[in-house]
Design a protein that fits this description.
The protein is mainly beta. The chain has helices at about 265-270, 315-320, and strands at about 1-5, 15, 25-30, 35-40, 65, 90-95, 100-110, 130-140, 140-150, 160-165, 165-170, 180-185, 190, 195-200, 210-215, 225-230, 235-245, 250-255, 255-260, 280-290, 300-310. The radius of gyration is 19 Å and the shape is globular.
C-alpha cells in the first residue's frame, strides 16, 4: 500500500494505491469525498465536473459526496443534503487488510468540528451529537465505501444517509440507452421527483432520455444489487446494504433504496460548477437510507456500505491478486 498526501495542505487529496495491482482511489478530506477510483487496468469509474470546486468553498461536484442527516431539503431550516460534504474531515488511519487483499483509509468527523451547513435540530447547542467515520477500501477491480455514524449524544435522532455517486460514462454516451442504463430495479416503486408521481419500474432498463430524478424503494428487499452500463463494453456492479447496531449489540437490518439522477440540458446549464454539456458524461446512481430508516438511540450506531466493481476488468492481475470473489462478503449484517 502506498499513500500520497501533502501534509502541509489540509485540503489536498489523498491517493491510496493498492500496491500489488496499482488500483488507486483519490479522496479529498473536504467532505471526505472520493473523487476517483482507477482499476488495476487504469479504468476510471467516477465522474467529476471539470468546474468542480476543490478549494473547500463548496461541496465537490462529482465523485461520491456524502449525504447526512437529510437527503434533499425536507427540513428547510437545514442546508440541502446536510453537513458531511461541506466540512473538513480528519484522516484517522491507513492500513492493509487480508495480506494485501485491500488498502484502506479511515476518515472521521465529529459534530463539534462541523462549522458549515448546520441548522434545524442539528444547529449549535443541540442535544444531538454524533461521530461519523468513512472507510474506503481499495481492491484491484473494486472499492468499498462504508459510513459509520455513532449516536454519541443524549437523545435519539431520525436521519437519512446516502452516497451521491457520480459514474463516468465514456464517449459522452449517457443519452444512448443501449450503452448507458441501469438494470436490476424491476418491481421497485419509484417517486418521480419531477412530477411528484409514484410508479412501479417495469422490466426495461432505466435510461436517460431527459432530466431524470427518481427515488427507488422496494417493499421487501433491503439491499441494492444493480448493474450500470457506463459506455460501449463497460459496466459496473453496485451492491449496497445497511444495518443499525443497538447498544445491546443486536443488529437491525435497515432498508436501502437508490436514487437515479441526470440533470439533462436545462438543469446542467443552471449549475455553476457543472459544464453545460457534461450531462452526457455521467449518471448518478445513489444508494441511500431514505425510507423506513431505524432511529438510532443513544449509544446506537449505523453502518452503511456500497461496493462498486468493474464488471469488464478480467485481467490476469485481478484474478491473481483477488483470488476468491470478495464482493458481498464485506458488508453482511453483523459481519463487518
Amino acid at each position: 500500500m502506498t499513500i500520497q498526501k501533502n501534509d502541509s495542505d489540509p485540503l489536498g487529496p489523498i491517493v491510496l494505491t493498492h500496491t500489488s495491482s496499482g488500483a488507486n482511489a483519490t479522496i479529498y478530506p473536504f467532505g471526505a469525498t472520493v473523487t476517483s477510483y482507477k482499476t488495476c487496468s487504469g479504468r476510471e469509474l467516477l465522474f467529476v465536473s471539470r468546474t468542480a470546486k476543490l478549494d473547500g468553498s463548496k461541496a465537490i461536484r462529482g465523485g461520491i459526496p456524502l449525504v447526512f442527516p437529510q437527503f434533499g431539503r425536507p427540513d428547510q431550516s437545514m442546508p440541502q443534503h446536510g453537513f458531511l460534504r461541506c466540512n473538513l474531515w480528519k484522516v484517522e488511519s491507513t492500513y492493509e487488510e487480508g495480506d494485501d487483499a485491500c488498502s484502506c483509509v479511515d476518515l472521521s468527523l465529529s459534530l463539534k468540528d462541523v462549522v458549515a451547513a448546520r441548522g434545524g435540530e442539528w444547529n449549535v447547542g443541540t442535544e444531538r451529537d454524533c461521530t461519523v467515520t468513512l472507510t474506503v477500501k481499495v481492491y484491484p477491480s473494486s472499492f468499498t465505501t462504508t459510513m459509520t455514524v455513532v449516536n454519541s449524544g443524549g437523545v435519539a435522532f431520525p436521519y437519512q444517509a446516502l452516497f451521491h455517486t457520480y459514474y463516468a460514462i465514456s464517449g459522452q454516451s449517457a443519452l444512448n440507452g443501449e450503452v448507458c442504463n441501469v438494470k436490476g430495479l424491476a418491481g421497485y416503486e419509484y417517486l418521480d421527483q419531477l412530477t411528484a408521481k409514484s410508479h412501479v419500474q417495469n422490466d426495461e432498463p432505466i435510461t436517460i432520455g431527459g432530466e431524470v430524478d427518481r427515488i427507488y424503494s422496494h417493499p421487501t428487499q433491503t439491499d441494492i444489487d444493480v448493474v450500470i452500463s457506463t459506455g460501449v463494453g463497460t459496466s459496473v456492479a453496485l451492491k449496497s446494504s445497511a444495518f443499525v447496531t443497538k447498544l445491546n449489540g443486536d443488529n437491525v437490518v435497515a432498508p436501502v433504496g437508490v436514487v437515479v439522477w441526470n440533470p439533462f440540458i436545462e438543469k446542467a446549464k443552471s449549475m455553476g460548477d457543472f459544464d453545460d454539456e457534461q450531462y452526457k458524461e455521467m449518471i448518478c446512481v445513489e444508494p441511500g437510507m431514505l425510507k423506513d430508516v431505524p432511529i438510532v438511540e443513544k449509544g446506537d450506531q449505523f453502518h452503511f456500505s456500497q461496493t462498486i466493481t468493474s464488471c469488464d476488468d478480467d485481467s490476469e492481475k485481478v484474478k491473481e491478486v483477488e483470488g476468491e470473489d470478495h464482493i458481498g462478503k464485506k458488508n453482511k449484517v453483523g459481519k463487518e
